[in-house]
Amino acid sequence: MGLLFLCHTSLNFFKFFMMRTSNSFNRMLTGFILLITAMVAIRIIVYGNIRYLSILWNLFLAWIPFAIGFYFKELPIKNKVQQLIVFFSWLIFFPNALYLVTDLIHLNQGSVVVPVWFDAALLFSAAFVGLLMAFVSLARAENYLLYHYSRKIVRNILIPLLLFVSSFGVYLGRFERWNSWDIITNPFALSADILHFVCKPVTNYKVWIITSIFSLLYGFFYFSLRILPLLFYEMRLPHKK
Fold first, then answer.
1. pLDDT of the residue at 157
2. Does 241 map to a domain?
3. Which of 151, 162, 171, 157 is nearest to 213 (CA)?
4. Burial of 18 from C-beta contacts in 10 A (0-12 / 13-18 / 19+)
5. Nearest to 96 by CA among 3, 206, 13, 178
6. DSSP letter at 238?
């Protein structure tokens, strides 16, 4: 039932963003998600193993900031309250898209029945889709911030800061098992945990090392993807007349 629900939900949100993104991007993203869904289904049907069923749920959570990112362009300029609500909603869920990379730690914990190469392909595909949706939504957030701040402030301060805060969110999700909705359902315990890490940085040095490494990796990935279109443009061969 859970797999059917996720497949039905996937079809619904495909209709949403297919009207808002380019056809080529739609085909690529849809193809990847259908491939991942099929691989999870094969794992269940052929190997009788439901271990990675949660990947579909994680993909859905990764899609939420991706979907919210579309509203940055449609926000009314004078409505500051609505802008803040949308931006912080995006920021709360944004770590979910980056989180999929950390599912790679399960690679050595899979079933002995399922081939390792199969699980590797599944996990890497999910991580790639997660990063793809994360960075598309981050680019939209960056464009929104550029409307309010200078390029130097956005590129050198705000984007690295967002990646660092989000990497800390990834740590909280992966190692402390907190979820985005705990901000509403369990805010006091979550706040106490965060304050413990912030107020005792020396004691919790491993937390900040992991967060910093994640932040640097995500930063390199993001800015590398930003320059790829220019690189491909420069590599184009002249067409024959």
1. 96
2. no
3. 171
4. middle
5. 178
6. P
